[in-house]
Amino acid sequence: MSAQILGILGLTLAYAALAVLLLSLNLRSRWHWLVKTFAVVVSAVFYIVCYLSIKGMLGWPTERVPPQYFELVAVHVQEPDKRTGHAGNIYLWLRPPVLRAAPRAYELPYDTALHKASLAAAKKIGRGIRQLGEYREPDGNRVMVEDRSGFGQESVPVVFYDPPDPLFPAEK
After folding, report:
1. What is the residue extent of each domain of the chain?
2. Buried b (16+ CB within 10 A) or exposed e, 137-153
3. Taking the CB of residue 111, how many other CB atoms lie within 10 A of it?
4. 136: closest CA among 109, 153, 156?
């Protein structure tokens, strides 16, 4: 069994035990009804907090700001859908380039320029070329990318690039 499944199973059993204790408190004790009501409300709040926080434990994409410098691991683009009104998202699996830590999934709003750039980077990864990247805050301090359509420049929050060549190549 994986650690995630054991964690979910343990959390579920812990809350089931809490529910049994709460039920016995309400059925068998002679405590005042305010104490019993307080216990029910507090446990309900803990259930809600647990439900909202478990998303981060299970590895779902975060909407937090990506790191400024990163290595791109994978890309998934969910294009906008006019029928359902879904605005679309771009999911990037990133990791810090120096630490070689486990990748983290980031959810970014759909952007046509970012879509093109991320798919081009994904193709390079498919060919075995590592892709590094840089994220800039979208508050006007965005990275400017040349638009090849001839209509000027387009700003995107993320830019991907090949890693630099090493200073001293390995001897053969």
Report:
1. 3-57, 69-161
2. ebeeebbebeeeeeeee
3. 18
4. 156
Calculate Rg over the CA atoms of the chain.
Answer: 24
Which amino acid is it at 82? K
**Which H, E and C letters describe the chain, residue by residue?**
CCHHHHHHHHHHHHHHHHHHHHHHHHHHCCCCHHHHHHHHHHHHHHHHHHHHHHHHHCCCCECCCCCCEEEEEEEEEECCECCCCECCEEEEEEECCCCCCCCEEEEEECCHHHHHHHHHHHHHHHCCCCEEEEECCCCCCCEEEECCCCCCEEEECEEEECCCCCCCCCCC
For the stretch 67-122, pLDDT in tens is 889 999 999 999 999 899 899 999 999 998 777 778 888 999 998 889 999 999 99
Q: How far is Cα 18 from Cα 166, in angstroms, rounded to an integer?
A: 58
Regarding pTM above 0.85, the answer is no
User: What's the half-sphere exposure (Cβ side, CA atoms, 13 Å) at 85?
Assistant: 0
- Burial code (b: 16+ CB inside 10 Å, e: under 16) for 84-98 equals eeeeebbebbbbebe
How far, in whole angstroms, is CA 144 from its chain's centroid? Answer: 25
